[in-house]
Amino acid sequence: MTRPLIHSTALLALAFTLSQSARGVGPGTRVLLDAHNAYPERGQWSTRLDDALATGLPLAIEQDLHWRTAHGGPPQSVVAHDDDALEGAPTLDAYFFARIRPIMERALAETRRETWPLITLNLDFKDNTPAHLDAVWALLGKYDAWLTTAPRTATPERAEPLVNGPLLVLTGSDTAQRRRFHDEVPVGATLRAFGAMPPVPVPGATKTIRARRAMLMTSAQHITATADNFVRWVNFPWSVIEAGGQKTAGAWVPADSVRLHTFVRRAHAQGFWIRFYTLDGFTPAEDRGFTASYNFGSRAAAAARWRAALATGVDFVATDQYADFAALRRSSGRREAPGPIFHGR
Fold this sequence. Notes:
Order of helices and strands: HEHEEHEHEEHEEHHEHEHEH
Number of strands: 11
CATH architecture: Alpha-Beta Barrel
Strand content: 5-15%
Number of domains: 1
CATH class: Alpha Beta
Radius of gyration: 19 Å
Shape: globular
């Protein structure tokens, strides 16, 4: 009795992949730099967003969001890494949307829709309070003309074709985000952002045990769903590919490539974009406020993983080393950028 349902689900996933691929943005069609933590921290690293944009388009940009309520003035969604660094943190509107406005306006004027979306905004919510999600929903509405969208339908299990705009917005896997950005959107209205598949729970009494069990799980066990009208991507720590993740990774070996390939192939077959985070390789002298747990220890070690991600078709490769990754991608022969970036303000 279940075989027709499985067959139907697989066909829906395949139809989604083909429809999006025809538009040039589907799973497996582009390998993009995902500029990790592209915002200032405690008054430092103020050029991160410009550094990311300087690598060329298209690209993805991550912004971590907190709901600031205790520093005077009205509550605001601000861009910051830690909840004790909110005073003085810029708002998402002033920091991100104001910066990309010239790029978006030029894109709309040129109407080179085959290159869209030019920027994928990855919103990492650190606070899922309803007021915060409401504020971001309203903010996205302010820039509705820029957005890649889909119609909100009464059949959420079916992924409708995207209506491409120059900006694609991704959210996370939290149920509160799905509720605000999909369930509460009236049927017939427009979806402004798209969520991630919730991670499959891995049992275990300790983090070490869970990590070991995660490595024993296949890609099909990690990616159990198919894309629907809201959930369109999967997001993984590197520890599902190499045991222990960046800090304990050894030499990159063929077995690692095989495992990475199976994850990418599975994600794309299920209609998902796939992202891995965060692939860095830096010495203490090269540290620019990066996260130590994401460090392979050298640029050469990170580059081995970047090359593998390029070869296997990872859609979003998160790294803090924007220029290094972009240079390696260019040298590999992949050219995702449609043309020179416009830097006007």
